[in-house]
Amino acid sequence: MEQRFAHCKELYGDLELFDLRRFKDIRDNGINPNSMNEISQLLPTIDNNVLLEQLKSFAHFWPTISKTTLKNTDDIYGPEYDSEDYFEDDNFVCKKEENCMKCLLCVVNIIHKYKELFKVYLFLLTIPLTQVTCERSFSKLKIIKTRLRSCINQENLEALFLMNCERELLLDISPDAVIDFMCEKSSEMLRLLKV
Asked: What is the total count of domains within the chain?
């Protein structure tokens, strides 16, 4: 298992910086300027220096932003505030100082400034970092074995399992190529498949 993920160690180290539990450490100690190399390679459109600054800034604002609730919004806008009217009124602004960071509107405005950080979180949330894919494959194998146990031999079962788990490979193979391959192996298949 260690060998399988050894080449990803630097990537995991970079991605660990985006964990909310690490924000306190980032606020206290900062970020190593040499970090984010793997992410920069995977996302070449990201400016590494801007990303580092945005992550530091977001880690600094996170304790305040995370405490924002709808109750805070009611306190700021007053009892006459109606959330349905808010979405219809384009000129609705916070009555407190600019970027009070206690109402949802100010928090949303602040979060929209972190464009590079948003791109990385979007990427981070789409890559599998756990063994879920492996567990899903074994679950599929169990389903296949249960349904086909009595009527299929081990070699064909393995082929079906691989086809199910490695669907990306199947997309690259055309049906005509499979038919041609089958026809090369058996004259009976040639007779049945080539009409």
From this structure: 2
Alpha-carbon distance of 43 to 51, in angstroms, equals 11
Contact status, residue 120 vs residue 51, Cβ threshold 8 Å? yes
Are 22 and 116 in a shared domain? Answer: yes
To the nearest 10 degrees (0 to 180), the angle between helices 104-111 and 48-66 is 170
Looking at the fold, whether 99 and 153 belong to one and the same domain comes out as: no
Please tell me the distance from the alpha carbon of residue 4 to that of residue 129, in angstroms, as a whole number.
12
Alpha-carbon span 51 to 113, nearest angstrom? 12
Claim: this prediction has a pTM higher than 0.70: no
Rounded CA separation 147/40 (Å): 46
Q: Which two tokens stand for residue 57?
A: 């800034």
Q: pLDDT tens-digit profile of 106-127?
A: 767 777 788 888 888 888 877 7
